[in-house]
Design a protein that fits this description.
449 residues, mainly alpha, Fumarase C, Chain A, domain 2, two-stranded antiparallel ribbon, two-stranded parallel ribbon, 17 helices, elongated
Length: 449
C-alpha cells in the first residue's frame, strides 16, 4: 500500500522558523507563569529545555522526525523527552494556529529588515558609480532609440529612486506585519486570563491583533511582502536588461568583472553577463510565488485551513531569491567599468540634439510646433544623406529657416544636459545636488530600519 503520510509533512521547510518558534514559546511560558497559569518552576524547566533544543538545532544534532509533520510538534516532542511532564503545560492557552502565525510574522519582520539593509547597500553602490563618473554625458533612450543626452549619474540615480520606493514598500509591509497574534487560540481566543500586551512586548511587536479569527487566518502580510518583492525584482530586472545591453558589442558601454560573467563552452571569445541574465530570469519565479499564494488564499473561508500550509515555501523562495540578488548587485556594481569615451561620443551623434535645436528656434521667436516640424524635416534629411546634424553646413540649416545662425554649432551634448536646469533635471548642478541628497539620505538611515 502506498504511504501518503508525507503529503501533509511540512518539516522539510518550516524548520527554518525554529528560532522564531522557540522565541515565541519562551515568551508564552514566561507569560503563563506571570499569570499563574503554570508554575514558575515549570516555566523555568520549559525555558531551559527550549534553550537546549535551540542549541541542538544550531549544531545540527536535533533529531527531526517527519512522522511528527511540522516544526511545532517536533520541538514539543523533544521538549517532553528532555524535561518530562512540564513540557505538556507549554501549549496551555495556545494553538498551532496562532503559534505558526506569530512565527511567520517574526520571520517576516526580520527578513524585511535584512532586505532594507541590502537595498541600501545597492543604493550605496549606485552612488559610488555616480560619483566615479560624475561629469560623463551619455545617450538617454526612449523606445530603445537614442533620445537626448543625460548625465550618467542621473541615470544611476533613477535606480536609486526606484530602490528607495522599494524600501518604503517594505517598511509599510513591516508596519502591518508588526501585529502580535498569539493568544488568539485556534480561532475564538482562549479561556485563560492571558496577558497579550506582555507577549507583544516580549516578542517586539508594537500592537496585538484585534480579532482572533482574522489573526489566525490572515496572510495579507505575506502577500504584501511578495508584492513588494515582485516590484523590487522588477526593478532589478530592468537594471539587468540595461547591463546586458550595455555590455554587448553593439553598445560597448560597460564591462562587467569576470567574477560576474561566464564564458562559452565552444566560443572562447564570449563574455556572457550570466548574473544579470539570471536576475532577470529569477524575477519570474518571484512573480509566481506571489500569484501562487494569492490563488491559494482566494477561496478560503474563515478561519484556518490546511491550504495555508502552502504559505511558506513560496515566501521562503522569494525572500531567498531577493536576498541573493541584493548580494550579487552589491558586489557586481562597484566592479563595473564604464567606457566614458564611448558613451560620451554617442551622446553627440545622430539626431540626439534635435530637441535642443527646436528649442534654439523657439528662443529666436518661432512657435514650438513649427520648430518641431523643421527639425523633423532636418532629421529625415540627415537620415537620407547618412550624416549627423553636426555635419550639416549652415546653408543646409538655412534652407529651412533663416533663424539658424553660426551659434547653432554652440549646441552640444554638454550644453543640452546643462540646459535641463530644473528640479529633477539632468543639468550638472541639479545632478550634483541630487547626489548629495541621496548620500545624506543613506547617512541618515545608517544601520537603522
Amino acid at each position: 500500500m502506498t504511504d501518503f503520510s508525507r503529503y501533509t509533512v511540512s518539516i522539510d521547510y518550516d524548520r527554518r522558523l525554529y528560532q522564531q518558534d522557540i522565541a515565541g514559546s519562551k515568551a508564552h511560558a514566561k507569560m503563563l507563569a506571570k499569570q499563574s497559569i503554570i508554575s514558575q518552576e515549570d516555566a523555568a524547566q520549559i525555558t531551559e529545555g527550549l534553550a537546549s533544543i535551540e542549541q541542538e538545532i544550531r549544531d545540527e544534532k536535533f533529531p527531526w522526525d517527519p512522522t511528527l509533520e511540522d516544526l511545532h510538534m517536533n520541538i514539543e516532542s523533544r521538549l517532553h523527552q528532555l524535561i518530562g511532564a512540564a513540557a505538556g503545560r507549554l501549549h496551555t492557552a495556545r494553538s498551532r494556529n496562532d503559534q505558526v502565525a506569530v512565527d511567520l510574522r517574526l520571520y517576516t519582520k526580520g527578513t524585511i529588515m535584512d532586505l532594507v539593509k541590502g537595498l541600501r547597500g545597492v543604493q550605496a553602490a549606485l552612488i559610488g558609480l555616480a560619483e566615479k563618473h560624475q561629469g560623463v554625458v551619455m545617450p538617454g533612450y526612449t523606445h530603445l532609440q537614442r533620445a537626448q543626452p543625460v548625465l550618467f549619474p542621473h541615470h544611476m540615480l533613477a535606480y536609486f529612486e526606484m530602490f528607495q520606493r522599494d524600501i518604503g514598500r517594505f517598511q509599510d509591509c513591516h508596519k502591518r506585519t508588526d501585529v502580535m497574534p498569539l493568544g488568539s487560540g485556534a480561532l475564538a481566543g482562549v479561556p485563560y486570563q492571558t496577558d497579550r500586551e506582555f507577549l507583544a512586548a516580549e516578542l517586539g511587536f508594537s500592537r496585538i491583533s484585534a480579532n482572533s479569527m482574522d489573526a489566525v487566518s490572515d496572510r495579507d502580510f505575506v502577500v504584501e511582502f511578495l508584492a513588494a518583492a515582485s516590484v523590487c525584482m522588477m526593478h532589478f530586472s530592468r537594471m539587468s536588461e540595461e547591463l546586458i545591453l550595455w555590455s554587448s558589442g553593439e553598445f560597448g558601454f560597460i564591462r562587467l568583472s569576470e567574477e560576474f560573467t561566464t564564458g562559452s563552452s565552444i566560443m572562447p571569445q564570449k563574455i556572457n553577463p550570466d548574473f544579470a541574465e539570471l536576475a532577470r530570469g529569477k524575477t519570474g519565479r518571484v512573480y509566481g510565488d506571489l500569484i501562487g499564494l494569492l490563488t491559494t488564499l482566494k477561496g478560503l473561508p474563515l478561519t484556518y485551513n490546511r491550504d495555508m500550509q502552502e504559505d511558506k515555501e513560496g515566501f521562503f523562495d522569494a525572500a531567498d531569491t531577493l536576498t541573493t540578488t541584493l548580494d550579487v548587485f552589491q558586489a557586481m556594481l562597484p566592479g563595473m567599468q564604464l567606457n566614458e569615451e564611448r558613451v560620451s561620443s554617442l551622446a553627440s551623434e545622430s539626431q540626439m540634439l534635435a530637441t535642443d535645436l527646436a528649442d534654439y528656434l523657439v528662443g529666436k521667436g518661432m512657435p514650438f510646433r513649427e520648430a518641431h516640424g523643421i527639425m523633423r524635416q532636418l532629421s529625415r534629411y540627415c537620415d537620407d544623406e547618412n550624416v549627423s546634424l553636426q555635419d550639416l553646413q549652415l546653408a543646409e540649416y538655412q534652407k529651412l529657416s533663416d533663424l539658424f545662425q553660426d551659434d547653432v554649432y554652440d549646441i552640444t551634448a554638454e550644453s543640452s544636459a546643462a540646459a535641463r536646469d530644473n528640479p529633477g533635471g539632468t543639468a550638472p548642478n541639479r545632478v550634483a545636488a541630487a547626489l548629495l541628497e541621496a548620500k545624506k539620505m543613506l547617512e541618515a538611515a545608517g544601520h537603522g530600519f
